[in-house]
Amino acid sequence: MTSTDGNAATPGAVVTCDLVVVGAGPTGLFATYYAGFRGLRVALVDSLPELGGQVTAMYPEKLILDVAGFPAVRGRDLVSALVEQAAGADAVHLLGRTASTLVHGEDEVVVGLDDGTQVRAGAVLVTAGIGRFAPRPLAAGEGWLGRGLEFFVPTSEPYAGRDVVVVGGGDSALDWVLHLEPVARSVTLVHRRTAFRAHERTVAQVRASSARVLTDAEVVALRPVEGEAGRPLAEVDVARGEARAGTREVLTLPCQAVVAALGFVADLGPLQGWGLGVERRHVVVDAAMRTSLPRVFAAGDVAEHPGKVRLIATGFGEAATAVNNAAVVIDPAASTFPGHSSALG
Fold first, then answer.
1. Alpha carbon distance 236, 223 (integer Å)
2. Buried b (16+ CB within 10 A) or exposed e, 134-152
3. Whose CA is closest to 6, among 72, 79, 90?
4. Residues 6-13, mean pLDDT to the nearest whole number
5. What is the Cα–Cα distance from 290 to 311, expressed in whole angstroms?
6. Between the CA of residue 166 and those of 8, 133, 148, 177, 178, what are the distances in Å?
7. Neighbours of 278 (CB within 10 A)
């Protein structure tokens, strides 16, 4: 799904290219393809060890319904297709490395990575999504990560035949309930509020499923199997109601797996030190996807402009706009409009 095959560079190397794309999610992958289509040499940087960004890390099995041309496409399948498409650009892949510093030269930019690699390019395109992200912890789950507690569900196979508790009230939590319900022995959704943040249709699907839904509730304890090697997870305590009102009750549920989908904390990381114009943790761009810095563009979820709608489909269009405008900065003799790809056949 997220092959890292392709050109690579050893730590501390100097990589020279036309465009360095920072962020290897769907927008970054399409930007890489499109830059190759424009004849640009590309380096693709991402702090994650695999291609695909948030889709790979957080919801590879989720069905995505708002990408043009696909009535429904699973996250891993979309990434796989984008990786195949981007392969034609023959980009240098710099994965598992963070873009840390930015220095402007006379007619280039130099991006320093955290492993000592330097990327010298004519322009930078930031497609870093929400930036670096870390899952919000489950208070009762300290010490349980990897021992029955997980934050993401890369595949449903480990949950087959198990009693699963999913914690959260957003789209990811409810999507995972629907994804795990056909394979797990039982699925219980625990949400601390009575209302959900997820899409109404998804909420209706969960309520119509066999999953048990506990609202105004929280997981307060995880307990292991007594006397068994490794002490795997055996059950959880779920508290419901208000302690101060005297209505609080504690339910003990059989459970071998907890999925904590409580959202995540995100920040732009070292990009914040580049001097970019930032608004609400997003990089401000104009209609050409130019940032406040020369030779630096942004596209996808990280970009902010009037009327912005954060969809994968939006990122694809912004990537093409950014690459076409960057092409002129890299080579002033180039045209912003490259012509239609259909005319090449």
1. 6
2. ebeebebbeebeeebbbbb
3. 90
4. 76
5. 19
6. 39, 20, 12, 7, 11
7. 17
